[in-house]
Every structure is written in structure tokens, then in C-alpha cells.
Amino acid sequence: MDSTSDILTLAFGASVLYLLYQMRSFRKFLGAAGFRIELGIKVLRRLHHLPKRRRWFLDQLFTSGIMNVHVVLLVGLFVGMILSLQMGIELARYGQQDQIGVIVAASMAREMGPFITAVILAATVGSALAAELGTMSVADELSALEVLSVDRVSFLVLPRVVALAIIAPFLTVLCNAIGILGGGFVADSQLHVGWSLYMDSAIEALRTTGEFVQLPKDVFAGLFKASVFGGIVAIISCSCGLKAKGGALGVGRATSHAVRDSIIAVIVANYFLTWILYQN
Amino acid sequence: MPPDTEPLIRLEGVHKSFGDQHILRGLSFDVRRGQCLGVMGGSGSGKSVTLRHVIGLLQPDAGRIVVDGQDMAQTSEADLAALRRRMGYVFQEGALIDWLTVAENLALPLQETTNLQPAEISDRVAHTLGLVHIPDSADKFPNQISGGMKKRVGLARALITEPEIVLYDEPNAGLDPRIARSINALIRELSDTLEVTSLVVEHRIDCLKAVADEVIFMHAGVALVREPIETFFDPDEPKLKEFLGV
């Protein structure tokens, strides 16, 4: 009896400790989410500072855009080829391989293009942003800016967020295009679907215009998503960098959190954006 | 030092802990307008933490920090920014922005907080770089200059806005004796001629002798000794004797 009660007491104690730990983690999560939302709002309220920050904005466009074009092209090409191959094999069973173009084009434009671009930006630019701002934080540079009454959000965060929100749709266009072309190459060479049939069906699939905007819906919805994803990646990465402390270890932690949290946030945002854009 | 002027900076019973480390334990002292007060103490005694409280980078757990009549904990963000524009802070490692040149680092506070024209800013940058004896470093990036030069650029950046109060976190660290002497002379000159109020955290006795009117000795989070510079290095307090090795 005594031992049973001891075990129960121990189990109860462990449960309380576990709950307390979870509450602490939850509080931390809420704190981080609140900081990021606040940072996003501050960026929006400072958009009119952008002309003053054009030099850093253009720098950021170059480093996050031009420097990543080859990565986006390579990954986009292979994703299109994989999609085409996987779908083609299944569709061939039902004699429907002529639909490959439709599926690859729609998948790339709606989901894969924006998502892959966002993941690449999180891994390359997001990690670099977090490391850069994190290093500034641990080297007292952020404190120096505060002491000098320099608005850190306007000076550091705004140009980075706007640059990523603008460059992400451009990279997505490249990713979509190369993915569709890669899919066509596989369809033509391995699945015996003619190149022109593939391209005709791909273009036809992207022709459907939206209800409110008279542009191909899959294309503009995908580009809108890409822009939002770019902004999310930049805000989360900057927030991780700004909050970094504790020397090199803290910078490393901030960098890994930036990539992890950016990808999670992009996936969650992707669901809600898809729901909003395609629910009808 | 102007005698018997009102305190410009006042710390009243300041407590600060980081986790379970109780760094400041009721620290109280004041700095009069135009005075140059040295702060000495062992590592971890809370000297840099004190400076960070004075400029509002840290908030005390208990107690008050009053700068020019304004309680730093109660001041609005806008008032704090306005107050900081009247203050300069020399960081231990310089804390220069890596991706800006030396000249851009110096110009930054002027571009962000004043309406000065670019030509005026350039003139002031050149003049201030001359004051700290590095006139030829304007176009270099921080990673292209030595630690001592970074320190001097940090000092120049703190002085370029012509502040009324300057807080120095070990201004002589990493400097060779010749440059250290010239920096000390500059700190003293600012205090004597422009009545800049200075708070100087420093380990080096020669620096404090050259710049300070009075020195406080911090131990275990409190100001244990406060003496004029003439008598500080001939102490009665055993802890200070032990620290100075006299």
C-alpha cells in the first residue's frame, strides 16, 4: 500500500513538474510569437522609411536574390522532374500521361514553387540574417545603435524584410518555369509524352483567371504566397538574431531557430493562405 | 571640476540580478555636472552593468537612476531617446557596425538624429577622427583596423554628437601607452573645457590619475569607497588596499 502511494505521489510530482515545464515552454513560445508579430507591425509602420534605406535594401535584394538564383534553379529543376516522373508512372497505368503537364504546372505554380523558394530562402538568407544580427547583438553593436538613438527596426529589419518579400516572387517565377521545363524534359524523354502536348496542357492549366483579379489564378496566388513567405522568413530570422545572446553559442542557436521556425511558420501560413485563396 | 554643482547623474539603492547572480546590491552614488568620476573595482563587481543602467540599456530590479532629473525607468521611449542624444557611450570593444566604414560609423548618429547637411557631417567626421589621431582611417572597414583603432573610432563616435555626458567603459584597454595618454588628455580636456560630465570605468591607475576628479571603488555591488583622486590611492579601506596591492 505504502509503495503504491509512493509511486502515485512520485507520478503526481512528475506530472506537475512536466506541466510546469510545458507551461514555461508555452510561455516562451507565446513570448517569441508576440515579439515577431510586434516586429512585423513595426516594419509595416516604417515602410515610408524605405527610400532612406535604399542602399541596404538594394544590397539585400542582391544578396538574397542574385546570389540564390542558381540554387533555386537547380532545386526547381529537379523538383519538376521528380513530380513529372512520379505522376507520369501512376498516370501511365490509367493511360492518362497526357495530363502530366497539367499536374506539374499546377503543382509548381500553386505549392511547390513558392514553398521550395521559401525553404531555400530560410536556409540561405534566413540563417545568414539571424547570424548577422545575432553577431551584432553579442558584439554590443545593437546596444550601440540603441545608445545612438538609431531606430534598429528601420535601420536593420525593414530593408531585409521588404527585400525578401519582393525577391521571393521573382525567384518563385524562376523556380516554376524551370520546374515545368524539367517536368517536360522527363515527360518527353522517359514517359513518351510529346513536348508540345506537355507544354500545351501545362499552359492551359495555368490559364484559369481568378474571380477578383483577371490574372491566371494559380500563378498570382502562388506569387502572393511567395511574397508572404519571404516576409515571414525575414521577420522570424531577424527576430531570432535580435534576441541572440551568449556569444558564439547564442548565435548558433539563433541561426538554427531561425531556419526551424521559418520553415514551420511557412508551412502553417501555407495552409491558411491556401484555405483563403482556394476555398471556393 | 566645478565645485558644489548639482548632481547630473544619481543612482539610489540600485539592485540588479541576472538569474541567481546578484550583481548590484544597493548601489548609490552621484556624478556632478562637469565632473569626471572614475569607477574602479574587480572583475564582476558590476562596473559595466552600472554604466548600462545609466544609459538605460538595463533597468534596475529596485532603486532609481536619475539623469538630469529624469528617472530612467519612468521616462517614455521618446524622452529616453532625446536624453540619449545628449549622452555618449564608449563600449569596451568599440561596438562598430561591421558593414559600415569608419566614416560611415561616425556619420550614422548625425544622419539619424540631426538635420545636418552631408558636407557638414563629412567635416565633423574628419575633425573627430583627427581628435582621436586616426585621420587616415575614414574609408577602412572595422575588420581592416586594429583593436586599439576600433576603440578610438568608438570614442570618436561617442564624441561626434558633442554630448554633455560621456560614459567610458575601459577607454584605455588595448591601447599602447602613447595613444592611451593622448586619449586620457582628450577625456580630461573635454571635462575641463566643455564641462562634459564623464563616468570612466577603468582598471588602469595611470588612466584614472590622468582623468578623474574622484574615484569610487566598487565591491560586491556597492560603492565601498569614494575619494578624491589625490587620496584614493592611499586608502584605509582594507578591501581597496588589497585590490591596489598597497
Write the layout of secondary structure elements.
The complex is a heterodimer of chains A (280) and B (246).
Chain A: H1 2-45, H2 54-64, H3 69-93, H4 100-138, H5 141-147, H6 152-189, H7 195-205, H8 217-242, H9 247-278
Helix pairs in contact in A: 1-6, 2-6, 3-4, 3-6, 4-6, 4-7, 4-8, 4-9, 6-7, 6-8, 8-9
Chain B: E1 7-18, E2 21-32, E3 36-41, H1 47-54, E4 62-67, E5 70-71, H2 77-84, E6 87-90, H3 102-113, H4 118-131, H5 147-159, E7 165-169, H6 177-193, E8 197-201, H7 205-211, E9 214-219, E10 222-228, H8 229-232, H9 238-244
Parallel strand pairs in B: 3-8, 3-9, 6-7, 7-8
Antiparallel strand pairs in B: 1-2, 1-4, 4-5, 9-10
Explain what the structure shows.
- The complex is a heterodimer of chains A (280) and B (246).
- Chain A has 280 residues and is mainly alpha-helical.
- In chain A, 83% of the residues lie in helices and 0% in strands.
- In chain A, α4 (100-138) packs antiparallel against α9 (247-278).
- The termini of chain A are far apart.
- The model of chain A has no long low-confidence stretch (mean pLDDT 91).
- The mean pLDDT of chain B is 89.
- Chain B has a six-stranded mixed β-sheet with strand order 6-7-8-3-9-10, sandwiched between helices. In chain B, strands 2-1-4-5 form a four-stranded antiparallel β-sheet, covered by helices on one side.
User: Into which percent range does the helicity of residues of chain A fall?
Assistant: over 70%
Shape, per Cα inertia axes of chain B: globular
- How many E strands of chain B? 10
Tell the overall outline of chain A.
globular
User: Which chains have the largest interface?
Assistant: A-B, 15 and 22 residues
- Nearest-integer average pLDDT of chain B: 89
- Please count the helical segments of chain A: 9
Q: How are strands sequenced across the largest beta sheet of chain B?
A: 6-7-8-3-9-10
CA distance, first residue to last residue of chain B:
28 Å
* Chain-averaged pLDDT of chain A: 91
- Rg of chain B computed from alpha carbons, rounded to a whole number of angstroms: 18 Å
